[in-house]
Amino acid sequence: MSSVDVVVVGSGPNGLAAAVVCAAAGLSVTVLEAEPEPGGGCRTQQLDLGAPLLHDLCSAVHPMAVASPFFEHFDLAARGVEFGYPEASYAHPLDDGPAAVAYRDLDRTVRELGPRDGRLYRRILTPLVRGADTVRDIGLSDVRSVPSSALRPRGLGAAAALGATALTLGTPLWDKLTDAPACGALLSGVGAHANTPIPSLAGAATALLLGTLAHSRGWPIPIGGSKAITDAVVADLHARGATVQCDYRVQHTSDLPAARTYLFDTSPWTLSRVFGDMLSARYRRALSRFTPNNGVAKVDFVLREPVPWADPRVAAAGTVHLGGTRAQMAHAERETSAGRHSRTPVMLTSQPTVVDPSRLGADGHRPLWTYAHVPNGSTRDITDIATEQIERFAPGFRDVVVGSRCIPASEMAAHNANYVGGDIAAGQVSMYRILARPVPRWDPYRTSLPNVYLCSASTPPGPGVHGMPGVHAARRVLHTHFGISAMPDIGPRA
Please, which of 90, 123, 299, 366 could form a disulfide with 319 given CB 3.0 to 4.6 Å? Predict the structure, then answer.
């Protein structure tokens, strides 16, 4: 393999984004992927679990993709990617009383939450939704610069509201200051995407970012599965002359082809294994202090008919958060963080056929995507626990299950090496680790080697299908090594 300008190791959304930026700048680019197909956490495969259906291997719902500045400029729609937008972005069933439902329509959400809960929810979300672009820009920044949108009057208000609300929602102050259980459960459920203890500032920030997107851009599902996003990006790379080589595992520097620069869309632990003592002792020590996040175990279900939710409004939601009240979720998350399995874990569920009938089988069979929070490295098959947790809010669920499979946390890395012990966040999620991700340095993407960069979810802004770590790292590569200061045009070419 002849020398190229840039080699990208790993073809998840961040690696592909980095590759697109570099290729659009006119550089020669090679992407190396260990798995048989590209995409990392953005892949879809046909599985026969009682019926042949498309199942998303990791990500399934994509609020970040439609919000991301990278994908916004890349223009997925112009490249043929279709999204379905559920009427309800997400829902949160409760044991006693109706579910809390976050519709894309904020006013409808407020009305159905009721006077007390709705009033508080409106007070929290309204300034954020009005300044949604600012909230997006802050949430997807490199955490080293102030987005220009935050300096405008509306942006300043949104930024202030984001900070103040996170300090309340993410601390015990919330429970002391509020008596709005449905609102608290709804926000805690969406904050649970961070897979951290409740309360936490990182979880609160996650809740407010994703909640803002729920009532502005929406929480869409790609038609045909998450693979549609990956296919569009790979097609663009091929059109720009870049190479994407799969079944190519990089385990040592001897596996790396000659290149001027290297971008690793991998965990820091993979980076350390590849370069070993070539990395400075100080940098290796700093990386060793960056630890994995809590794990997830995944259960894919095949159903003969829709989930029989006790509250039928939940059937309209693309995503469902399961865990009960804020207090119940807090207990479950404490158990997980302490290395214990909860009998009622926090779970995330996706119903793709709400907006994508192409995912239905010939006899009406449909996939149901679920994650349950478990201790990192757990070997437990949690199919029964996941079934019980869904049955809790959907009596009769067992009767509609045709088949299933569980991927324990300990086996998640088998299809994506970045998911160490089931950690789909690629490292601890906390406010400190949002700022110092993966190490406390001004340029978190640059390693101790002058031409080697890290561009995975282990760098700011962290996890999610948005490509922004790849963009932030690639811009530094362009400027430092190739003298290119302007962001290249990554939009569709005529």
Answer: 90
